[in-house]
Amino acid sequence: MAKTLRAIRFLAVAALTGWGASGTARGWGYEAHRIVVDNAIELLPPGLKPFFSASARAVREAVLEPDTVLKEEYGREEAVRHFLNLDLLDRPPFQGIPREYDAALARFGRERMEQAGRLPWRAADLLRELTAAFRAGAWEAAAIRAGHLAHYVADATQPLHATVNFDGQDSCNLGIHQAFEWRLIDLDPPGYRKGARARQKRAVYLDRPVEVAFRLLVEAYPLHREILEADRAAVQAVKAGEGEYFAVLEGRVRDLAEGQLAEAGTAVASFWITAWMDAGQVRTP
Read out DSSP for 15-77? Predict the structure, then answer.
């Protein structure tokens, strides 16, 4: 049965892309990350927006690098920066997970923490690096750091990056990770960009950025069940001859996906603003 369900999902992805689904967890797909960057720029204040508008190409390239250049260079060390499997460490509402990494390490141990991931703390590291680049007037470095930071912050809004069942491997949904975050968005990038932009909120300065990254993950976590249910419904529709896999999947989770992309855009802009303000609201070129 599990092999049959996976085969249907595999063929649906292959029909769109010419190749099969991967079991390797990624963040949002390339197009989704570009959507988040483009939409986040629209939320920036006058003192910061011109720099990001002029550097948009560099930022859009850099936002993909954690999934390409950095993973190729650092392997597993980089991979664990893209997620935090909350349910490997605690139960909802996940208040038992220390927000300081050293405290979490002391409580759960290094091996368990390496399995769980490091996303919130990686975002905090990049926030500090972006702040330093702004303060130093290192504008090329700032564009790259901004793109990298945007990647991790956006990953925190992807529900399948908050659970140990990240690819549906424990629930007969194997392959859903790529189907949801990558192939689904690729069906209609302009539509997802427009839908997400319309739902963004005002970007603000973040007093506690690590806590914000945790909040994004905690709020995204329960949504992974909706994605898994939508996948099951799509597979069953194909088996019954009542629909095409991605048509059914999109009908059930498009609103969810647009909502999370909107959350990502708002959060990314807020992290950028925070770095800029912490750098003294430096004058940008």
Answer: HHHSSPPPSS--SS-HHHHHHHHHHHHTT--TTTHHHHHHTHHHHHHHTTGGGTHHHHHHTHH
What pLDDT, in 10s, does the model give residues 236-272?
A: 999 999 889 999 999 999 999 999 999 999 999 999 9
pTM: 0.92
- Render pLDDT for 23-59 as a digit per residue (tens, 0 to 9): 344 568 999 999 999 999 999 999 999 999 999 999 9
Is 16 a residue whose pLDDT tops 80?
A: no
Q: How many CA atoms lie within 13 A of 221 on its CB side?
A: 21
Q: Can you tell me the distance from the alpha carbon of 30 to that of 62, in angstroms, rounded to the nearest whole number?
A: 11
The CATH number of 2-278, from 1.10.575.10, 3.30.70.270, 3.40.50.12780, 1.10.357.10, is 1.10.575.10
| Residue-range domain boundaries for the chain | 2-278
- Which residues have CB under 8 Å from 276's CB, separation 6+? 47, 48, 131, 134, 282, 284
